[in-house]
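Researcher: Structure for this, please.
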Amino acid sequence: MRGVILVAHGSQKESSNNEVLALADRLNKKKPFHLTAIKPAFLEFAHPDIPTAVKEMADAHCSVIDIYPFFLNAGKHVSADIPQTIERLRKLYPEVELRILPHFGGSSKITDVILNDLEDIS
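Model: Predicted structure, token format:
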């Protein structure tokens, strides 16, 4: 079984965190059949954090968990904080393959999303 953890920064503003939770809900409603679940996680200020989300997926018998950094830029969180957290978790869950995917802002499709949104503005 395969799961995805959508990792966002987290905010002291609850409404911002709720946007990420709502996105995860929408993704789960449209997820491909081969994915068990898409769970949100936060680095700071909000819950669940990455270790909690990984534990939940491991407890649900996910053998592969993809970590999707929901960040526009490859700053410190993407290049250092998330990889360090995942490295620690690999030691706790050696039976689970934890893979870090490219961050959201690095997607070649993001230009299409922006251009489609701009087309909708009249």
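Researcher: Any notable elements?
Model: The chain has one domain: 2-119. The two ends are 44 Å apart (CA to CA).
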